[in-house]
Design goal:
single chain, 232 residues, alpha/beta, 7-stranded mixed β-sheet, two-stranded antiparallel ribbon, 22% strand, globular
Length: 232
């Protein structure tokens, strides 16, 4: 089977990347000849995703205009959070209503998504369909361009855990379905709440990425990554 649905989380303020994000939303910041949102859409399209939801809040009009003018093979729909920012979990729960029971990818656009990730998306699919459980793409912090990350999770035999010391970073790509969102009776909540419940029951699966991890979280890191000359 192939995952045909996805959501891109584009509603955040990009606070740590100020002043870059004062007038430009973080997803529209360019690295090389493409902005982060375009790179995210391209990755999903190239995998075969046919329907994409993008949530918006900060400088939403700019993202909406970009999407309107962007020629995509996928159908792209905006999930409007202009009046109330729903956090990651709430945003996904609201935005993916139209997916029904179909599983979907969720992508954070502040990772530099290069074509080398396509093979890992296929592997993530395989784990999801075998386990019937949500899956995260994780990377060992040794592969992070930004060496300041302390780690989010641990990973053993494709099972995700969270301990006092953690060696793996969440890349910003996950695969799940609404069965894990619908039971949460809140409008605003974080995906961390979903993950915590799954980890407590050994039901959060993971895949280790072998890609160098480039994450744009500060102006300094943006400048360093931009100077690498990555054009993919």
């Amino acid at each position: 089977m192939k995952i045909k649905h996805a959501m891109i989380l584009a509603a955040g303020f990009g606070t740590r990347m100020k002043p870059l994000t004062l007038k430009t939303p973080k997803p529209l910041i360019k690295v090389g000849n493409k902005n982060l949102l375009e790179r995210s859409i391209n990755l999903l399209e190239n995998h075969g995703v046919e329907q994409i939801i993008i949530n918006v809040h900060h400088l939403a009009d700019q993202i909406e205009k970009f999407v309107f003018n962007f020629k995509s093979k996928a159908k792209i729909t905006i999930s409007n959070e202009k009046n109330l920012l729903l956090d990651t979990g709430g945003g996904v729960k609201e935005g993916t209503k139209i997916f029904g029971k179909n599983p979907f990818f969720v992508l954070n656009p502040d990772t530099l998504w290069l074509t080398d990730y396509l093979g890992e998306m296929k592997s993530l699919e395989k784990i999801y369909f075998e386990s019937k459980k949500p899956c995260l793409l994780l990377v060992n912090k040794k592969l992070s361009f930004d060496t300041s990350f302390k780690g989010d999770f641990n990973l053993k035999n494709n099972i995700v855990s969270k301990d006092a010391e953690n060696n793996f970073i969440f890349t910003g790509l996950q695969l799940l379905d609404r069965n894990y969102l619908d039971p949460i009776d809140k409008k605003v909540f974080s995906m961390n709440e979903v993950w915590k419940n799954l980890i407590n029951n050994n039901k959060l699966f993971g895949l280790e990425s072998s890609q160098k991890f480039y994450h744009l979280n500060t102006e300094e890191m943006y400048n360093k990554i931009s100077n690498l000359g990555i054009t993919d």
